[in-house]
Every structure is written in C-alpha cells, then in structure tokens.
Design brief:
Layout (H helix, E strand, L loop, with lengths): L3 E6 L3 H12 L4 E4 L6 H6 L1 H21 L12 H25 L3 E3 L3 E5 L2 E4 L2 E10 L3 E3 L13 H4 L8 E5 L3 H12 L3 E6 L10 H13 L3 E4 L3 E6 L5 E5 L4 E4 L1 E4 L3 E3 L32 E3 L10 H16 L13 E3 L5 E5 L2 H7 L3 E8 L3 H5 L5 E8 L5 E7 L3 H13 L4 H6 L19
Parallel strand pairs: 1-2, 1-6, 2-3, 6-16, 8-9, 8-14, 9-10
Antiparallel strand pairs: 4-5, 5-6, 7-15, 11-12, 12-13, 17-18, 18-21, 19-20, 20-21
Length: 448
C-alpha cells in the first residue's frame, strides 16, 4: 500500500538511530537528508566543537608545562591545519553513518523533503508514500533581525572559516556563546563576549554563570554584560563596526551571533497535515512522539525537549520500541546530565538551586571552591567550583553542579548516582580517590 513503512526526514543522531533500528525489525525504511549525514552534532555541533575546544586549550597546557620543568616554545598556530584535520575527521564520520544506513538496508535520499499529506512526501519532484513519517530535522542557528544582521556569522559558519580573525565579538550568553568565546581566545583571537542580560548561562545554576564570567575574564576574554547590539556595518578597514544600544561603538573583524537555535520546521509542509506547532516553531507531540496527525511523528531538537544528542538517541529507541516492536515506552527526562565545553568546563545534573527551592520544603547546599593540585605548580589561577543540592526530608542529592577541569567526565558518573536515588549519606560513606578533583564531591560536609 505504501512505498515504505517508515520515512524519516533528517539523518541526524535521532533520525539515523530510528532508521537503523526500525530497519532491523524488518521494516522498509527510507531517510531523506538535504545537508549531511550525522546532522548538527557530527557536522556543525558537538563533535567539531569539541575538537576545536581541544585545539584551543593547548596554549594553556603549554603555559602550565613550564611550572613542571618543561621548556616549551610555541612559535605559531596554524588554523588551516586544525580546520582541515577536523574536516577529514567529519568526512570519516559521514562515511560511517552512510555505511551504517546502507548496511541496515535503509534507502537514502539526499534531498529536501516536503510533506504533502499524512502519508506523502515530495522528494525532487517525486511523491513517496509511507505508512509512518518521522520528522527528525533538528534545528538551525537563530540570528535576530536588525540592521546589518546579514554581516554576522552563526555557529555553523565558524567551522569553515578561511582564516581566524584578529578581533572577534561573540554575541550571546548561552552555552554556544561561551564555548566559542573560549575557543577564539584560546586560539589567539582578541575576543569579546557581549550579552544583553546580567548573567551568563541563565538557565543553569546561578552560581555557575557568575563564576564563569570571572574565569573567562581571567583567561583574557572581555565579558560585557548588559550589552546589546543595535547595528553592524562594514567599515573602511575591511572589518565590521558594531554599534551597541548604549551608544558604544567598536570595530571587529568578525561578529558571531550565538543567540539560540530554532526548530527547522519552515517549509516542511506540515500545514498539509493536522500536526501542530508551538509559537517558536517546534512540533507538538505526545509522550510517544506522535503528532495530532496519527501517521506523523517527530523527535529530537525539533520537539522542544532537551536539545542533546543522547536525548535524541534515547527518543529514537523508544519510538522504534513503541511503533515497531509493540513495546510502548516513554522517556524519563529527569536527571539528564549536560556539559558546557567552555574554559573551564561546566557540567551539571539535576535541579538548580532555584528549582530545588520551588520543589522542596527545605534544602541543604554544599559548596566547595578551590585551586587544583595541578595548578599549584603551573601558577594557573583557575578555580574549580562544586555544588551539591540536597532535599532535607529525603536526604537525596537532587542537583550537582561543577565548573572545572574534566567536569563533563566527572558528572557523567555522578548522574548514575542521582538516577539511582543516592542520598547525601551515601555520598558521605563513599571513599574518595585521592588525590583527584572528583573526590571533593564525597568529602563536602559543611553546608553554605
């Protein structure tokens, strides 16, 4: 009756996983992808950004090495080498994704897909039918409208720059902005981070944003809060002149707007179905990823849940279990760990202090801030910060937040403890690994 049992729009993390797993059940599956296999994460997101983060951190590693007796001389950083090596690695990953899909028996359409009915998709002028359609098209960077907005770059553009700027302005206060500010600064770019709000990372625990601003300033980033761009214009020096709403005017070589992302639902054709959108463009689905159109489903960054690759992967598995294995199940979004690869790293799992205050009658807060053992010889003044949030009534740890070296690696293990319902007494009874940064989490005894 249909060409396919499942047609997936978008070959990002969620789309590829859903396609492969559905095909493994014997379903006839196709996936349509207009840009590149692997989606945002593999191509213009977490993977290349982490590679750039690694590259940008070496300047600090070289400096730290001197305190340990190493005579390190750094004469030059070659941007094209990092960029091209990154491109080679991404191309390798693209090939792996293609092989996985082909080996699973999934048909790949390298085209833009437009939904033209509950079971119909238009691909390069040809109508394809499917019993079920899964939208996993992700999101795209968002740049607000203002005079000169077309002169600003978005995060996608940074991965393919021909050359590094001498002076860059990064606009935004979220995780993408603070990450790229650290990357630019680490690669030798004179970097300013401008945010219209009063605190960086406003959706994270308040202690993290304020401390990150201080640390980034110490590392050489100019952090300008309550600073909003009004216009951007080309100048006579082949650069850009930025006028801020407070009257300040500055010249830069590059302006990056990292002011959020929006669901990629424009021109998708959903108006030809009963599927509904929120005001921000994300698709409304139920707990099983089904839209108001019974044959159309959606998952990943496009539905308004946490925009994280592991979340999309988990959703894809739940979708396949529910639709192709007759094992309906939903996703538990509590205690999802996340990391920000700024410098220093930030990682978190569970509730912020503000959220915990609203949820529990009484909470206890444990904080620790210190200079790590490694930095005692390096003369690096970077501070590490750790925080535990405990529900007094149950003694359960309900939030863990960290800023410091390898925060993401440390929080991943602690996320298991929170998911298992570990209490503060369990943390206290756990013997630490000495000397490590992570042991601080099991030695905090005094509330603050």
């Amino acid at each position: 009756m249909y060409d396919y049992d499942l047609l997936v729009i978008g070959a990002g993390s969620g789309g590829v996983r859903a396609s492969r797993m559905a095909a493994a059940t014997g379903a006839r599956v196709a996936v349509a992808e207009e840009r590149y296999l692997g989606g945002t994460c593999v191509n213009v997101g977490c993977v290349p950004k982490k590679l750039f983060y690694y590259g940008s951190h070496f300047h600090e590693d070289f400096s730290d090495a001197k305190g340990y007796g190493w005579d390190v001389s750094v004469n030059h950083f070659d941007w094209p080498t990092l960029r091209e090596n990154k491109n080679t690695e991404i191309a390798r990953l693209n090939g792996i994704y293609q092989s996985m899909l082909e080996n699973a028996g999934v048909t790949i359409y390298p085209h833009r897909a437009e939904i033209v009915g509950p079971h119909k998709v238009l691909l390069e002028g040809k109508t394809i039918t499917a019993e079920k359609i899964l939208i996993a098209a992700g999101g795209r960077p968002y740049v607000p409208e203002f005079s000169g907005a077309e002169l600003a770059l978005c995060s996608d553009d940074i991965f393919y720059l021909e050359q590094l700027p001498s002076r860059a302005l990064v606009v935004g206060g979220g995780y993408i902005a603070v990450e790229f500010a650290g990357i630019f600064q680490g690669l030798g770019v004179d970097t300013e981070l401008a945010y219209r709000g009063t605190q960086l990372l406003r959706t994270f625990d308040e202690d993290l944003g304020s401390r990150l601003a201080s640390e980034q300033t110490n590392k050489g980033v100019t952090v300008s809060l309550e600073m909003d761009v009004e216009t951007i214009a080309k100048n006579d020096h082949h650069g850009l002149t930025v006028s801020f709403k407070n009257g300040r005017i500055e010249d830069y070589d590059l302006v990056l707007f990292a002011t959020g992302r929006k669901a990629y639902t424009a021109n998708l054709g959903l108006e030809s179905t009963r599927a509904e959108l929120r005001s921000n463009g994300s698709i409304i689905v139920d707990d099983y990823f089904q839209t108001a159109e019974p044959s159309i489903f959606a998952l990943g960054d496009i539905i308004g849940t946490p925009e994280l690759t592991p979340v999309a992967l988990a959703q894809a598995m739940a979708f396949v279990d529910s639709q192709f294995k007759q094992r309906p199940r939903t996703i538990d979004y509590s205690y999802i760990p996340t990391a920000v690869f700024c410098q220093p790293n930030i990682a978190t799992v569970g509730l912020t202090e503000a959220e915990a205050i609203n949820q529990f009658n009484e909470i206890s807060i444990y904080r620790s801030e210190f200079k790590t053992l490694k930095n005692s010889l390096s003369q690096n003044n970077e501070r590490t910060f750790m925080k535990l949030i405990v529900d007094v009534a149950s003694d359960k740890v309900v939030g863990i937040h960290m800023m410091g070296s390898e925060a993401g690696e440390i929080i991943q293990g602690l996320a298991v403890a929170l998911k298992a319902g570990a209490t503060k007494a369990v943390f206290d009874a756990t013997i630490g690994v000495h000397p490590t940064i992570a042991e601080e989490f099991v030695t905090m005894r005094t509330t603050s």
